[in-house]
Amino acid sequence: MPRLIRFDRIGGPDVLQWVEASLPAPATGEVQVRHLAVGVNFIDTYHRSGLYPVPLPSGLGQEAAGVVEAVGEGVTEFAPGDRVAYAGGPLGAYSEARNIAACELVKLPDALSFEQGAAVMMQGLTAQYLLRRTYRVQPGDTILIHAAAGGVGLIVCQWAKALGATVIGTVSSDEKAELARSHGCDHPIVTSREKVSVRVREITAGEGVPVVYDSIGKDTFMDSLACLRPLGMMVSFGNASGPVPAFEPALLAKMGSLFLTRPTLFHYTARRADLLAMADELFAMVAAGQVRISVNQRYPLKDAALAHAALEARRTTGSTVLIP
């Protein structure tokens, strides 16, 4: 029987359990995938901690890459032996094998390894919608990305640079500043000694930026708004430091008639045609060498708790994968 990570109560990394579970044949419309690499994302910690409640007991994880072992009735797009990857569907990617709806899968190009596939789907598709759909970055734009040395951050830095943008990024250390710089960040801001909005105004000669991409949440929200020029867009796409406190919408008017959006990947990929188009664009950027995928941490799947502890303690850079 395949083994997987499960949790039956919310809490810290210690609630994660390594268990065996039976795996039936794939049902109609499903594909059975043998995982060769599993992606770790901050949203996984939200599910585990209860910030994003899920019915318990539950599996965990929404991103992986592997090989098709069997297909259910009605599945024609995939066949046993196909290399596939996904970022979505019900929780359960932290497993050696699983059944998942065929509509969640994309074919993984031979040019990408399974580790790259597991590391790039959620973070890379997130970067795609941030830069190409939520606010479509144009040549000459100056943008701000928080957590520039993280998985999404490093991809956004490279992709935005390839689009002709100037990239400002926040990091927590000089080491992470150099990592971000090596991935296209023009102006790393070390938050332990610099106030972000002050530096952004200095860099932009007082103008501010047209867009801020903020996955930190509570700790950065107000200062992020202060970085925007009039009619700028605040893209709050995560809350690593906790949810943003309630505020009066009139604040957005006072600070320059600002726009605010709280997007999630799964609304952008809800239509299969959109998912395939986004994945094609992402894979093309990777294949062309314009986006390098940095898998900087690897853990055995059974040690998922260690991966979560490192992620929450900000001890990681780039992407983290679990190896079944």
TrEMBL record:
SUPFAM superfamilies: GroES-like, NAD(P)-binding Rossmann-fold domains. It comes from the Bacteria. One of its GO terms (cellular component) is cytosol. Residues 11-322 form the Enoyl reductase (ER) domain. Transmembrane segments: none annotated. The keyword NADP applies. Pfam families: ADH_N (PF08240), ADH_zinc_N (PF00107). InterPro entries: ADH-like_C, ADH-like_N, ER, GroES-like_sf, NAD(P)-bd_dom_sf, QOR-like, Quin_OxRdtase/zeta-crystal_CS. Gene3D superfamilies: Medium-chain alcohol dehydrogenases, catalytic domain, NAD(P)-binding Rossmann-like Domain. Keywords: NADP, Oxidoreductase. One of its GO terms (molecular function) is NADPH binding. This is Quinone oxidoreductase. The gene is qor-1.
